[in-house]
Write a structure and sequence with these properties.
The structure holds 2 protein chains of 2 kinds.
Chain A (H helix, E strand, L loop, with lengths): L2 H15 L2 H12 L16 H20 L2
Chain B lengths: L1 H21 L3 H35 L4 H28 L9 H24 L6 H14 L4
Helix pairs in contact in B: 1-2, 2-3, 2-4, 2-5, 3-4, 4-5
Classes of the chains: A mainly alpha, B mainly alpha.
């Protein structure tokens, strides 16, 4: 990956959630001796709420089946 | 959290730029390549978080038995894709540590991206409007990881 590609990727991803000034601040902190941003990995989402909703929807669908055509 | 992740992404991009412009040894260049893979992992994780939230919103919009009967199977399939993508990312994570096989990490990242690709039409089928930024981020990830077009 070229430097331009890396920047394009980072910029596109930053646009997903916005707030470019925060990024600049974080880089400034790193340059001043703070933690290197790349050392931190994003956390994976929990799917628990989706599983609970799925159970609710399937229970609802059963009611539709019981009501019949 | 979203703001912090946004900061992370752009900061990593800037760090890579700095690394690329200052690296004079193969080791230094290798280190920046590993950092890009870590960026791709974080990008995939955040993209998955966004898609998980969109899936959840679609689920919460289902309020009647008839809606549930029509949309339930698609939402169930979507949940399977989310779980498979998350699982692939979990598999990738150990390979992001220093000294581990980065190619393995990229293989699992590609698996996760395949699952994300499978999820997108399912979300559209239940009425989810995918934000342009999310689509764009997935496109960049696909380009980086060499996934299916």
């Amino acid at each position: 990956m070229s430097t331009a590609d890396a920047l394009a990727l980072a910029t596109a991803l930053a646009k997903v959630v916005g707030k470019i000034p925060d990024a600049v601040e974080q880089v400034s902190s790193w340059i001043s001796g703070g933690p290197r941003p790349g050392d931190v990995l994003a956390e994976l989402p929990s799917l628990e709420a989706n599983r609970l909703e799925m159970a609710r929807i399937e229970a609802l669908a059963e009611k539709a089946g019981e009501a019949g055509p | 959290m979203r703001h912090a992740l946004a900061a992370l992404f752009l900061a990593i991009g800037l760090c890579i730029t700095l690394a690329c412009t200052t690296a004079s040894t193969p080791e230094a260049r290798g280190a920046s390549a590993a950092q890009v893979t870590r960026l791709a992992y974080s990008a995939a994780a955040v993209t998955l978080s966004e898609l998980t939230e969109l899936h959840l919103e679609a689920q919460r919009a289902v309020t009647t038995p008839d809606q549930a009967a029509v949309m339930g199977p698609t939402l169930r399939e979507g949940l399977r894709a989310l779980e498979a993508a998350r699982s692939a990312l979990e598999m990738a994570r150990p390979y992001l540590e220093p000294g581990k096989d980065e190619a393995e990490a990229r293989r699992f990242l590609r698996d996760a991206l395949d699952q994300i690709d499978a999820l997108l039409p399912l979300l559209k089928a239940v009425g989810v409007q995918l934000p342009d930024e999310v689509v764009e981020a997935i496109g960049y990830l696909r380009g980086f990881l060499g996934g299916a077009q």
